Amino acid sequence: MLHMRDKQAGEITGIYQATSRGFGFVTPEDGKSREDDWFIPPRSDGGAWHGDQVRIQPLEEEGEGRRRTARVTAVTGRANKTVTGILSRHNRELWLQPDNDKLPGPIQVLTKRRNVRAGDRAAVAMTSFGSSKLPPMGTLREVFGPAGERESAVAAILYQNDISRDFPDAVLDEAQAAPQAVEEAALAGRLDLRDRTIITIDGAASKDLDDAVSLEKDGRGRWVLGVHIADVSHYVTQGSALDLEAWERGTSVYFADQVVPMLPKELSNGICSLNPRVDRLALSCIMTLTPEGEVVDHTIAKSVIRTTERMTYEDCNLLLDGQRRGQAPALQERYQDILPMLEDMAALSKVLEGRRRRRGALELDTKESYVICDESGAPVDVAVHSQGVSEALIESFMLAANECVAEHLNRLDKPCVYRVHEKPSPDKAEALRTMVAPLGYDLKEADGPSLQKLLDASRGKPEEAAVSMMVLRALMKARYDGENLGHFGLGAKYYCHFTSPIRRYPDLMVHRILTALLDGKLTGQREKKLAAAVQKAAVQSSQREIAAQTAEREIEKRYMAEFMRGHLGETFAGTVSGVTRFGLFVMLPSGVEGLLPVEALPGQGWQYDESHLTLVSEGGGVSYTFGSPLEVVCAAADPTTGQIDFTLPGVDPAPRAARREKREEAPRPPRREKHRGNRRAMHVPKGRKGRKKR
């Protein structure tokens, strides 16, 4: 394997990945797998922090069985421009211990603010990353409140991921200036669909309704499926304050009972929301399908619609369940005119689902955990939501429209922000093969049919959820790109995001391109300008999506930990969802995940089998691997860090809790002449739970 080396010094460039134990790794810029990483021993990091761009120098020649070892020779780019953590005072000086245990600390805080209290969670802007003689330093930027409160942790996570709850005044001014009703002038040249039966189906609490559907049959007995999407681009014009802010945000962020929207509510809940029985501007993708679900014709048009009903998933699922429908006579009577169309929609959805499956699309476990909060915002339960018939039909119809639009633009050779998903890399495929082998599954190939066969084989078995999670983790991350690379998970040759312009910027870009095309303006300089914007939007949106997912995941962990704090000492049935040398991650049926540390396991000798990702007892009598059923007791839960600790029934959790308290004591700043940027002990690694994102 050849690596990118500095021409002058023969060095390698890459990203430094720190650990909490003093050593780290560097992933080369041209690295293809974990095997390409370089090990960085303790005191060889050259002052690099986790995530920094660095240059490294190999310390020894590569050889059979030797660990690739190097030292950092230069930091070429800093990743941690701001750091969040907990404040403390020592000798009248203010210090911040980073929340991230992969960062050195403590950091000396330079501020002239009064009434800054020790014990608050805060953010500092780094001014110096320290040296052998001086500690790292930063200026105080934000104080979030007492560190022991969940809300301060949530605020810090949003801040760290550059997610703001508030909109700038210029953006709010533009949003408030938007019309409250569709203006007559906006109807010119639009396809008038106001006399059609068009409905929205969303969650009961949803207020930003950006997609609606209709279904009819033509004179030849073919399906005519309409997917009608709010024409957000009509109100968010390119280069406006609204557009620039949406570009910066990239996506809306959802957690617990809250949302940080991409667009102000005046638009997202108002003129851009397809509310019932009012005129709304839309972009409609109207597809003609054979009884077998093949799209044989389509029309994409600027339209005006008036939705007939605002329906909920819950009501639709009840109406489409033949056994339960009789329990809701009032619901049946209210929607009697729409019920035949709903039944046709459910039937077409099944046809489309079967067609996707036959072409190689993966059917992953679609159960999602969600936190239920009371009126004060405190978590009172964690539940699992399973996809019903109505959720499945909306997903099928949105997928069909996304594919149709992507193929339409591709065949015309016009710019498009594609949603791409590449096949698993060789190292991910091998890791998956290794993980499922102890469960009795022989995975020869990591193509679509083979992965689906694996998922089907585990269906209904205790390890089903674990296998689904393993497959999900083995897949590459979907992202946005200006080049059409297909979508492996969907088995789709063409795919983009067209159906959610209220909450995703790529969809807004696709709408802008379609509008220019439909208006006959996607030529010359206009086309060049949009083509240049496409790749920038793809990169920006991919980055903001990662930030949003990171924030959602980390915040969800805090809510779940707060919920579990009310269940200390209770016993739960769980499944091993992760195996490391320091313990087992165990997931409960609700989706709550915690760590069962190796020291809480019976006996003294536990060996980590990296090749099979298994913990084996001394003598081999007991072993734990992915999918192993396990009964655990909740021993500790910390809402400020999101850490949940389990122990086994009959094991006293007190020693573990005592070790936690000792480990989490705020460290005193070292004397400056001895400052070495020591790292904290590892707790629970971040982000082990995947989520389907199509």
> Major beta sheet, specifics?
5 strands, antiparallel
Give me the secondary-structure category.
Answer: alpha+beta
Average of the residue pLDDT scores? 88
Q: Give me the side-by-side strand order of the main sheet.
A: 3-2-1-4-5
Pick out the low-confidence regions.
1-9, 655-694
Shape: globular
Tally of helical runs: 14
Helical content class: 25-40%
Could you outline the blueprint of secondary structure elements for this entry?
Blueprint lengths: L11 E7 L5 E5 L9 E3 L12 E6 L11 E8 L4 E9 L2 E6 L8 E4 L9 E9 L8 E10 L3 H11 L8 H9 L13 E2 L6 E4 L8 E7 L5 E8 L10 H9 L3 E3 L2 E3 L4 H7 L7 E11 L5 E12 L2 E4 H7 L9 H6 L4 H20 L9 E6 L5 E7 L3 H23 L6 E3 L5 H11 L11 H11 L5 H11 L4 E3 L23 H14 L5 H42 L5 E10 L2 E5 L5 E5 L8 E4 L4 E4 L5 E2 L4 E10 L4 E5 L6 H10 L31
Parallel strand pairs: 8-10, 11-18, 12-19
Antiparallel strand pairs: 1-2, 1-4, 2-3, 4-5, 6-7, 6-9, 7-8, 9-10, 13-14, 14-17, 15-16, 17-18, 20-21, 22-23, 24-25, 24-30, 25-26, 27-28, 28-29, 30-31
Helix pairs in contact: 1-13, 7-8, 9-11, 10-11, 12-13
